[in-house]
Design brief:
With 113 residues, the chain is an alpha+beta fold. It contains four helices and four strands. The strands form two sheets. Strands 1-2 form a two-stranded antiparallel ribbon. It has a two-stranded antiparallel sheet with strand order 3-4. The chain binds zinc ion.
Length: 113
């Protein structure tokens, strides 16, 4: 699901979220994550941050703890098999061996590249 759907599923009130940059750079997101603000849904220390775009309120930070993030997983923008291939190729380009674990078939398979 996208981040807006995640906020909705978690029952987060957009008006309660902090204003955020419209198009945050990675460093801005990283700085936010390093602060470990309370999870927007449950108040536990957050582990990830992103921006929800609200038509009325504008961009707002959505901070999620581990459990809330796992309850609202992001959508891969490409098939898992293609993502694995891309990661293997990127690792090979820099001379690293990639060992990837997926649960595409309901189990965990080691995919060594
Ligand atoms: Zn949470």
């Amino acid at each position: 699901m996208n981040i807006g759907e995640a906020a909705h599923k978690l029952g987060v009130d957009p008006a309660a979220l902090c204003p955020a940059p419209a198009e945050p750079r990675f460093t801005e997101v990283w700085e936010r994550m390093q602060q470990e603000p309370p999870c927007s849904a449950c108040g536990q220390p957050s582990r990830t941050s992103g921006v929800v775009r609200n038509r009325v309120l504008g961009p707002r930070w959505l901070d999620r703890c581990r459990d809330c993030f796992l309850a609202t997983p992001p959508i891969l923008r490409r098939p898992l098999s293609q993502a694995v291939t891309d990661i293997r190729e990127a690792a090979a380009e820099v001379g690293l061996r990639a060992v990837l674990y997926t649960d595409e078939d309901g189990g965990q398979d080691e995919l060594s590249g």
